[in-house]
């Protein structure tokens, strides 16, 4: 009965599961019968005991056997005779779900956030705190007026597209084509739709290393291969990028040249021009993520969007979520008309409808006479918080940090070496939530902090927590 003809292409534990099921279907074992002990069955089948245990666990999960500690494993009663067909192993399917795989460190942070507390400092969450989001007056609108505004084409609310193009012209001195601008439900939807329409499973994409893109499951879910390219003080290294493009037949280059997430680095104009020329020579499109563009602390002429330098080869992603809050969920994609037509059509087929409500509200905000005044105030407060946090970090032994020139992230590096797994727990024990560098790269010596979420009244507490953490890290290196 217990003989296994091993077959190629199917894991051994699954073959054992099938063998056990077949003995019941054939009547050799009946419901309630006891299976041989794990060690005995492993010996009879010529496999490791752990393989047998894996098979039994799978059968138990599917409900076909019952395992009783100290007594053994038994064929389950009550199911056989109703159907002899094996149930779908949903567990095996769910294990392939890229969106379900969460880093345990992140789960621990989320639990701390749920519990809250006055002593908790949240430097992890990737959005502005509620008290900093600008407030705008909303005119009285009737339900009928909203329904009338619903009359929009597949590219989104046209008045909003006009407002975005006008804002870009005022800030950067170049014009996006409102007729081809596609409104999206946030920047990530724009990125997701690009992956779905323009790339196929197995395609290679070059990105910066470190990069927030590593933390997004959409690439793994789409089967896209990411190849990280090292950065210097100005961003992506172009020699390394060209080598990666040749070696891996890269189909796209994705960059975040202004206030890069997570490092905050800014690519200079000369580097931007060289990047554009390099990708033109290989006929490889660039995806430019410029979601922090409105939160710059430096003149716009120093950081012209890649889209301005090469309108035809760059897919430009922008967002209002970083200044109006993530619930607004307004992003946009500027791409050639033929590309955005395909993306808009695909979105319609997938039924990723875009509500008119956030679009109308975003348009009201952009046309508010006080919009730029409120934006200036916001940037000043963010700058003050960033300066304070950087000053604290620079005073601590072992930490190096560069003041950001825009956005709301600071990248702090521990110069005494990588942090071991148990050392990351120091941050959780202190209730200081930060994004560890291993989320964005193979590096394990840095942290990303959203300093906009640390107001003046919490900065002394931040100092105390960082001092205690640093003291522990330094003590470990003296042992």
TrEMBL record:
Keywords attached to this entry: Aminotransferase, DNA-binding, Pyridoxal phosphate, Transcription, Transcription regulation, Transferase
Origin: domain of life: Bacteria
InterPro entries recorded: Aminotransferase_I/II_large, HTH_trans_reg/aminotransferase, PyrdxlP-dep_Trfase, PyrdxlP-dep_Trfase_major, PyrdxlP-dep_Trfase_small, Tscrpt_reg_HTH_GntR, WH-like_DNA-bd_sf, WH_DNA-bd_sf
Molecular function GO labels: transaminase activity
Domain HTH gntR-type span(s) in chain numbering: 10-78
Keyword Transferase found: yes
SMART domains tied to this protein: HTH_GNTR (SM00345)
Keyword field contains Transmembrane helix: no
Family, similarity comment: In the C-terminal section; belongs to the class-I pyridoxal-phosphate-dependent aminotransferase family.
Protein name, per record: PLP-dependent aminotransferase family protein
